[in-house]
Fold this protein.
Amino acid sequence: MQEKFIRTALIGQPNVGKSTVFNHLTGLNQHVGNWPGKTIEQKTGKIVFKNYTIEICDLPGTYSLTSNSEEERIARDYIITKKPDVVIVLLNASALERSVYLLSELLLLEVPIVAGINMVDVAKENGIIIDFEILREKIKIPVVELIASKNIGLVNLLEKVVETFEKKEDFKIPFSPIRDAHKSELDDLEAILKERVPSPYSVKWTSVKLLEGDKEITEFSKGWLKEDWQKAHKILEKHEDAYLDIVGSRYEWIAEIISSVVKNPRPQEISITDKIDKYATHPIYGMGLLFGIIGALFFLTYFLANPIVNFLSKSVSSLQIIFKDSTSGFLPPFISGLLFDGAFGGAGMVIAFLPTLLFFFFFIAILEDVGYLSRIAYIMDNFMHKIGLHGKSFVPLFLGFGCNVPAIMGTRIIEDKKARFLTILLTPFIPCSARFAVLAFLATPFFGKYSFLAMMALILINIATVFLIGKILTSTSFKGVKSAFIMELPLYHKPNFKTVFVYVYVNLKSFIVKAASIIVIVSCIVWFLSAYPSGKIDESYLAQFGKFVEKSGALMGFSDWRAITALATSFIAKENTIATFGVLLDVSENETLGKKIAEIFTIPSAFAFLVVQMLFVPCLATTTVIYRETGLKWTFYSLVLHLTVSLFSGIVTFQFLRLFLA
Amino acid sequence: MVDLLKLKSDESSYIVGFKGGKEFSSRMASMGLTIGSEIKVLQNYGKGPLIVLAKNTRIALGRGEAQKIIVGDPSECRKNSSEQP
């Protein structure tokens, strides 16, 4: 028998367990990319079921299909223009009334639909009983009960998808799209739009969306109607309030279904979620709990990952030496350097990042799956508002203290694009553990017993910089960043192992696939710049660059070209600053490297150096991830921003300190 | 008729209208906050966002957003719903 291909789209409101369903159905057989021209993630997966291959396209989680957000536009464009064979809509059993709203919008599109009612177990725990027989009768589309986290009902869901695909039934919209009060206006609009609306858009749907005030459809209709737009515009202007009758009509239909389908015998009982939230979202206890949890996450990630990272880094460098030695007889130096110092070193860097990312994604996946991530955003919202950001931006910024790479990838939890990009620009100002290590290493030889004070001053300068730059950006490039805060707080529930596992797998894979090749290539280029033309680093192109910009270093008090060169190599990895000093400065037996470095600085220039090092352009891995998340333009913006801010801060620091200390 | 900010923790009322135009009310409607429906404030500490319960969904709302939601006696719905800015 020949295999048949069914193209489906999976849609659902946020927190309905959509990714659990998607992961259970497709397993690891999924492809992650971006929607064309968008920074929003697109996931597709395939599953073989009976003699069908079913492709599932995971649409962004949306509450409705109006063009209020990019996600909503993506979801509805896919359904309208790509015409999937079957649309699978997931509804939340414990908030059925609200989630049927999305279904009511889908029904208007007149596409074949299968509805999965997920989390019926959670609903039961909350005393909500659903009569599925009556529900099927009322909404006239296939309805499947699901407990996706326990893999219950998913086979049944696929059965219904196949059935719906084979039947190819016509169906009618089971409710009136508008209340009677404005029915005639809808009819008038349909008459005007008739034969003017191009395929695949329908006249009815377009008319409804026009009355709803949908911006995208309004623009489209102007183009379709040309001079006749005035006729439509007159109706719309006169009946501004018609949209209330559209929404109202949908909810009346929904209320009628719900009243006969859902029994909630103990509605007054306080749920477990509300009991936890009495503390978890309390302004004081909640804050305490948050810092406890994030501190633990932070500690556990680096506590668990660090030994593995150290082991891997050591293994990579000893392998590097073994390879180089064993091939030195027959490989020309250029090839050997390129292969082992450049490419292998770069690959080693990627590997060394993996343990940190693994544990980080693991803990984040648990926090997200349990439902706590949205509480973090809630608690920190007030505070983050002061720099024009959402509460959600707090999570990546805080995690930047460990490593900027997962922090940047973690900004995906922020839906609003502008707010997300702003967070990405600010994150590298947060000193990661490698930067901290460099600062701590240098502070003692530079400032002796005052090193602790110097470190405190650096942290204060850092926090002030993040706030100041945040403020400046939100009032310039990022003016009008959406600060509206509307967010569902899902019911707490036990984490699902498979969801967590797939989350970790998909994110690690995406880091390896997307970032690794770039890191390896750039690592090769930097190796070349530091090894050529003569093979000595102090005559290399890199050193020539250091000497070339020495003059600008003078403004920060760096009178030695090696300071700037060391700083420049920190672009590869932050800890390179120390390593480069080690190569460039001759350290004799009875001296330490720290002391030797301190000799090329004065107190003001030493402090300025630490400030610049702390705020300097992010490392190669971070820059690559920024590029992957935002594209070339924003990566460039980020590099220029960090370069400017760090050098400017260095100059100000030096010139200021010089007044008192020189 | 008052805005939602005036309700204290654990107080309930009915939504009778929205300030802030179609986009805001359609966003609210999609999350289950519709004119005529019951809304309960779970948390309002006088500063910071609120948590409300509507149609068995917990929603965090910034103070600016909460201010645009008008609550009161459900009989006032129809009258109020047609005078949107």
In short: Residues 79-85 of chain B have pLDDT under 50 and may be disordered. The longest strand of chain B covers residues 12-18. Chain B touches chain A through 34 residues (CB under 8 Å).
